[in-house]
Amino acid sequence: xxxxxxxxxxxxxxxxxxxxxxxxxxxxxxxxxxxxxxxxxxxxxxxxxxxxxxxxxxxxxxxxxxxxxxxxxxxxxxxxxxxxxxxxxxxxxxxxxxxxxxxxxxxxxxxxxxxxxxxxxxxxxxxxxxxxxxxxxxxxxxxxxxxx
Length: 148
What we know:
Elements: H1 4-11, H2 26-37, E1 42-44, H3 48-52, H4 54-63, E2 68-70, H5 73-77, E3 82-86, H6 88-103, E4 119-124, H7 125-131, H8 137-142, E5 145-147
Parallel strand pairs: 1-2, 2-3, 4-5
Antiparallel strand pairs: 3-4
């Protein structure tokens, strides 16, 4: 993330600022710092600490009236504004396929490594309304799921 995201951001003429969180108690401190800088948006990265605190992060972002994006539908279900990421159900179906092949005698080393092929875009309109963001109709039309 720290290597790839800044390169992509520069190509889009965006500035990326990162805040490090090492423990659950750090979120309030980080959001205090974020609120002083007032960025245009927040990308909620991956990691177990982040996943365990999705609802807390979504609530802090909403309280700050900060549009936030995560990589999983679960973040939006917890109150985040939007997510775009690999479809978890599709990934688990592929895992089941691989388990089946291995149980039938295939050697794991002989199976190809796959990347996700199905992605989902989810929008939470409740959160959008709460933070005062209007989602354009053409963006809503592209969403796989809209939480109303």
